[in-house]
Each structure stands twice: as C-alpha cells, then as structure tokens.
Design a protein that fits this description.
The protein has helices at residues 33-48, 60-72, 92-95, 116-119, 124-127, 129-135, 168-174, 180-191, 238-250, 300-311, and strands at 6-7, 15-21, 53-57, 80-84, 98-102, 107-113, 142-150, 156-158, 163-167, 195-199, 217-221, 224-228, 260-264, 271-272, 275-276, 285-287, 290-295, 316-321, 337-340. The chain is α/β, with parallel strands linked by helices and 345 residues long. Strands 1-5-6-7 form a four-stranded mixed beta sheet, with helices on one face. This is Agmatine deiminase.
C-alpha cells in the first residue's frame, strides 16, 4: 500500500468525535421540538461519556439555548464544541462527510451530493454543509473532494477492509436506469472498496430513505453482521426481512466462510396517526468503547441490548431513548456521523 493509498475505515475504529446538528424551530422537528430535544440531550450525554461531540447550531441563539440545556443535564461541556452553520435538518449521517483515511496520514473527505433522499425534501443547505464545516477549519489534515453523485452515508456500510454492504433499492432509486455493474464500479472506486455486497430485500414502513442499509444490516466486525429481524408471520415486514436474512446467510467472507449473524428483535408496532414508524434496532452508533443503541420504550429493548452485547462483547451497550426520532422516519445512527481519530480539530 502506498503512502497516498486511501481506506474507508470501519465505524468501530478509533474516533475523534461525533458530529450532530441541534434541532430547532426551523427544522422539521418544530412540531415536537421538546420531545426530540430530550433525545438529543440523552444522546449527547451518552456520546460525551466516551468522546467529544461536535454540535452544529444554526445561530448564536440556538447555541446559547443548547448549551444551557446540556449544562443543566450535567453533561461534561469540556467535551462539547458548537459550530455555527446553516442546515435544513439534522440528519448528519446523510449530509455529513464520508471520511477516508490516507495510509501516510491524513484524510480525504468525500462530499457527495445530498438531494433530500431523491428530492423528497428541501436540501440545498444540507448539501453545502460539509463545505461550510471545512471552510471553518473543523477538519484537520484533510482535503475535501466534491463528487457529483447522490449518495448518503446511511446507504453504505464497510468492514474497514475493503468490503462494502449496501441495498439495491436505495441506489437504484437514486440513479434509475444505471446498471448494477456501473454502480458497483463507482462505489468501489470512490470508496476504495474491492468488494460490494448488495442486498435485494429488506424495507421498513415509515422509512423514507428507500431502504438505507443502516436501518437493516450492519457490520459488527469483519466476520460479523447484525441485522433487523422479524419473526411474526402476521407482520407486514415478515416476508421481506426473512428474505433479507436468507440473503445475509448466503453472503461469504473473502475466505469463503459465512458471516456470523446476530438477529435483532422486532419491536411491537409503534403508530403515529395510524402511520407505522420505523423502529429499527440496527440504527445503532459505535463509539470508542461502546455501542449506543436506540431504545423505543418497548419490551424488545432489553433483548436488543442482549443481542448487541453478544455481537460487541468488548463494548458497553448504552440504550438511548429514541422514540421521538422515528416520528421523522429516522433514528440514532441517522442523526450522527462519526469522525475518525485525528480528523477533528
């Protein structure tokens, strides 16, 4: 490997910080802002137990308010940094940078186009977020590469060793008419992967991302995958998630062996005005020494903690109450973006 060779690190590798954006009255959270603020406070409290949090705020007033709320919750404010930047909403997994690590030191930030999940929502400010942050010197020892291709961070999952996991539904929705071979080559080239594994099945009601992989199946190690299961034949998700489980069982590692698979439980249906919400336990975030798991106030929460503890035996599993997040069709991983060690100023 040359000094300039790039690698897409796995989420479980050492991190410098987690990047978030604080919800405010100008985001889609306005109608239920109080509830979602409580989730953000709990999430920042969990993150700062293990590493710093970098929080984007829309203006000085939002920063002052967020600072007061976090300080009143006795969060270690020495591990919280605020960054003023314009944003449409708070889904940093999809509007934040995708970080590649350079073998000789340093990083390349891939700044893909963010289209509001295929034009579903306004996203002009979110699409410019990485540039704004880069201009403020938030990232060190790095260069930014703008790529005129729609790709969200929640759509891709890597093992850190050249294997990418993604879903055909999402990428084909973003780029209709482009054959799989072409999209495989593009992803492999930009993300420096030599294997792209596609899932053809799996969906969640209440998900408007067109089946992001981070709601369905996640690497826990190079040889292990955690995935969202469904064991109720009467549930509308049963056929698709069972088919996805079979696809995962058929995947092979480089040595030809199957992956170790960990099936997450399925929460009881959570409804909002008769609309089912996407309560996926697969939308967890790996941080230094821990896994932050979305909890939904369901009896399956405890079982999900147990499954993740088996998948990540050397990490603490921390349940974060995330029920308010799924009202806007995402969860814990969707609102965060980890930054590899050495990237954050």
């Amino acid at each position: 490997m040359t000094d300039n060779a790039l690698r897409f690190p796995a989420e479980w590798e050492p991190q410098s910080a987690v990047l978030l954006a604080w919800p405010n009255a100008d985001t889609d959270w306005a109608e239920r802002l109080g509830d979602v603020e409580e989730t953000y406070i709990a999430l920042v409290a969990a993150i700062t137990r293990f590493q710093p949090a970098l929080i984007c705020v829309a203006d000085d007033d939002v920063e002052a308010y967020a600072r007061a709320r976090l300080a009143s919750a006795r969060i270690d404010m020495g591990r919280v940094t605020f960054i003023t930047a314009p944003y449409d909403d708070t889904w940093l997994r999809d509007s934040g940078p995708i970080s590649l690590k350079r073998n000789g030191g340093g990083f390349e930030l891939l700044d893909f186009r963010f289209t509001g999940w295929g034009g579903k929502y306004e996203a002009n400010q979110d699409d410019e977020l990485v540039e704004h942050l880069d201009d403020q010197g938030i990232f060190v020892n790095s260069t930014r590469q703008r790529i005129d291709f729609a790709l969200e961070g929640g759509a891709i999952e890597t093992d850190g060793n050249g294997t990418l996991l993604t879903t055909w539904k999402c990428l084909s929705e973003r780029h209709p008419g482009h054959p799989r071979e072409e999209l495989t080559a593009k992803l492999a080239g930009w993300l420096h992967q030599d294997r792209v594994l596609w899932l053809n099945h799996g969906y969640l009601e209440g998900d408007d991302t067109d089946a992001h992989i981070d709601t369905l199946a996640r690497f826990a190690a190079e040889d292990a995958i955690v995935y969202q299961g469904c064991s109720d034949p009467n549930d509308a998700h049963y056929a698709e998630l069972q088919a996805m489980a079979q696809e995962l069982a058929a995947l092979r590692m480089r040595n030809g062996e199957p992956y170790r698979l960990f099936e997450l439980p399925w929460a009881e249906p959570i409804l909002d005005d008769c609309r089912r919400l996407a309560a996926s336990y697969a939308n967890f975030l790996i941080v230094n020494g821990a896994v932050l798991m979305p909890a939904y106030g369901d009896k399956a929460d405890a079982e999900a903690v147990s499954v993740l503890q088996k998948a990540f035996p050397d990490r603490e599993i921390v349940a974060v109450p995330c029920r308010p997040l799924i009202w806007q069709n995402g969860s814990l991983h969707c609102i965060t973006m980890q930054l590899p060690a050495g990237l954050a100023a």
